[in-house]
Amino acid sequence: AQTVTQSQPEMSVQEAETVTLSCTYDTSESNYYLFWYKQPPSRQMILVIRQEAYKQQNATENRFSVNFQKAAKSFSLKISDSQLGDTAMYFCALGLNYGGSQGNLIFGKGTKLSVKP
Amino acid sequence: DSGVTQTPKHLITATGQRVTLRCSPRSGDLSVYWYQQSLDQGLQFLIQYYNGEERAKGNILERFSAQQFPDLHSELNLSSLELGDSALYFCASSGNTGELFFGEGSRLTVL
User: Fold this and answer.
1) Closest C-alpha to A114, from A90, A87, A89
2) How many CB atoms neighbour CB B106 within 10 A?
3) Share of chain A above pLDDT 90, in %
C-alpha cells in the first residue's frame, strides 16, 4: 500500500522569507509521480509542482522548488520569497503510473501555511 | 480554470435523502476521479472511472455509487444521506501527464 505523510500540521512564515514543507512517502513501485497541491481558502485544488520519480533533477516552478530524495522517500517543498497569496493548505500527493495509465493520487493530510505581513 | 466542471457548487439536503453530483472532465481526458474532503481533512479517494469502466475503488461507502457515461461525464450518487456525509466532493480528470486536474468541488451539507 502507498502512504503519504506530512508531519507539520501548521506552519507560519514572514512575508519575503523562505519556508520548507516536509513530506515523506512509501511505495514499492518504481514508476510514480510526486506532487504538491495548494488549496487556498477558495477550496480550489491547484497544482504547484510535479516530479517524476525517474528524474534525479529537482523540479522548480518560479519561487517553488522541491528537494526529492528518492532513497529516503522524501519530497519537501521550498517556497522562496513568500507572499501573502501563498497562504493556503498544501498537500503532498503520490501518483502511480500503470504503463501510461494514470492511477489515483494518494494525498497527505496537509500542512496549513500562514504567511504573515 | 482547470477545465473540469462540477455541478452543483452547493447543495443542502436532509438526512435520508439522495443527491446526484455531476462532473464533466477536461476535453480529451478519459479518466474521472471522485474525492471526498471532510472539514479540515485531506482528500479521500472514492472511485475512478476510465472510459466508462470502473478502474479503481477507494473508501467509497455502499450507499454511494458512481458511473461514467459514453460522453465521459460522470455522476456520483449519494443515498440515505447522514450528517457525516457533509463534505466537499471533488471530481478530477487526468490525461497522460500524471497530474490530476480538479473541479471547484460540490459542497454538500446534510441537515
Assistant:
1) A87
2) 22
3) 78
Residue A94's Cβ-side half-sphere holds a number of Cα atoms within 13 Å equal to: 27
Residues in chain B, pLDDT under 50: none
- For residues A23 and A108, the answer to whether their CB atoms sit within 8 Å is yes
> In chain A, whose CA is at the least distance from the CA of B43?
A107
Nearest CA in chain A to B46: A104
B-facing residues of A in 52-81 (CB < 8 A) are 52
B99 to A35: CB separation less than 8 angstroms, yes or no? yes
Q: Mind spelling out the 3-state secondary structure of chain A?
A: CCEEECCCCEEEEECCCCEEECCEEECCCCCEEEEEEEECCCCCCEEEEEEECCCCCCCEECCEEEEEECCCCEEEEEECCCCHHHCEEEEEEEEEEECCEEEEEEECCCEEEEEEC
Grid cell 500540521 — which residue? A9
* Cis amide leading into B8 (omega within 30): yes
3-class secondary structure, B4: coil
pLDDT one-digit tens code per residue, A62-97: 999 999 999 999 999 999 999 999 999 999 999 887
Interchain proximity A50–B50, CB inside 8 Å = no
Parallel, antiparallel or unpaired: strands A60-61 and A64-69: antiparallel
